[in-house]
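Below is how a single chain appears once it has passed through the pipeline. First comes the sequence as given, then the structure the pipeline wrote out for it. We keep one example in the README because the format questions we get most often are answered faster by looking than by reading.
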Amino acid sequence: MKGSSKTILITWVTLVCMLPLFSRGQDNNTPIKCGLPYVIEAFKSEKSELPNLSRLYKLSKTQVQWDSITSPSGHFVIHYNTSEYDSIPSYDRNGNGMPDFLEFAAFSLDRAWEVEIDSLGFQPPPDQNGNPRSTYSIYLADPGRVYNVPPNTYGVTGWDPTQDIPSLPGFNFPSEIWINTDFSFLPDYLYAHFLNGLTGLEKRAVRDSLAIAVTAAHEFNHALQLGYRIWIEQNDFPDLWFIESSATYMEEVVADAINDYYQYLPAFFSNTHRYLTEEASGRIYGGVVFDIMLGERHGKTITREVWEQITQEKALDALSTILQQKGSTLDGELRELATWMFFTDDRYINGNFFPEGDQYPSPAMQQISLSQDETTLSGFLPALSFRFYQINLSSPASISALLTPDQSPEFWDGINFSFQMPYVQTFPANAFTPVQSTSDLRVYLVVFSGSWSADAFEDTFYELLIRKSSQVATEEILVYPNIIRPEDGVDQIVFANLPEDARIEIYTSSGVHLFSLSPEDGQRVAFWKLKNFENNAVGSGVYVYRVISPEKSVNGKILIVR
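Resulting structure:
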């Protein structure tokens, strides 16, 4: 609601946003992708110097003599100065009388508008009345002039928190973008694929053009986000993880070849054991891999669709709602993310998973050697997280795994990877499952913790028992999951502990023969992908299976719910 309590809160935010900031655990030499998290930190700071700092903020822009141009599309008014410490670089390589830096900015901003609004369907940034703006203000200057961010910050999307738009639900603001004029803090390796062989002015110009391109795409998406809804709870911004990851995703969509975001991937790939929305250092930018995967699976409009839903509910719930509308689930997509992250770096499979996965790092992975008949791994995980394991074998052996979490086992799964189709086997908690090893005697597993809790700080203990299959106590044929719901991201039935020379026949409840399958040589496990002989997916219903072997035969039923 738009009311007096909200007015008091916004006034307080306005003043606190001017306070000195701290680094959120990021190394001082690491380029700061975006100043917005620093503004968020200021929001949580002490209020002792507020009157003075507020006065200085209001004076900051009026103390500079600004020149301005309009971008070719007419959508951006770009302000700059030529005499201050943060004036734009003056180089003009084509001699047309306009500094190249200005031309880079105008082109990149027009490109961001064309892709994000005209192509992907985001609504234009709002004015103070909530109406779409046709022109938007850009400042080419040190963002620290106004927002007190570190000097190695690409840019900031800023807003006056006293200017909340009363006609829109929740918190929404008109805004402006500040783009740095000095990108000398960027290391050469970041753009090495463009800078190799270049020196001097040419090298500087190419670096500037690339940095401006990703900054324009990123910060302009923040300007669009501010027209949907910003959720504020107890002086915090619970959607910061998605605010930043979805803006970083626009860098990949608008300026795909640059790949500036690669530098933040290690922060995410080394922290998959954290709750999805946790804001640890560069992890909020590295989390763009989730958006990239969702874009590959559901289309590049996915983040815009989520932002439209954010007008009704916070980002995590909004994402879950949109995925359900697409016939998927949040847990199912996170399981898929674990798989895509596994097949990166030297495990990259061309034509599968991340298109640029060969350039991504490997996820952090705990390694152990199985020298005895069994070993038990253990740990804690919060909801919406996962942990990778590599088990090294001393000799060929059939291996089984048993995952036992302390609570909510229905939300936990194990995932086993191989380098042959279908690449992935998912198995439930509390059931011994044969798992595959690779040709180099390694077993790759993930412990996946689903949406059993909404508390990012609550975690649960689990154990993962790894045992040579000859040690598995039961000889019962295991068939799971049963009931199976493909919308949960599990698209196959596992037949485990199969006798030698077994084959499996699948029938409809009326006796129509649908499919036949058998384990691979030397294996005691087979997988039915819920398809018939014509490779068409079967529908909801009860199906009958028969396991036939010289040793024994077993009949049973499977329930599929779509």
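The chain has three domains: 4-342, 364-473, 475-562.

See the next section for the split statistics.
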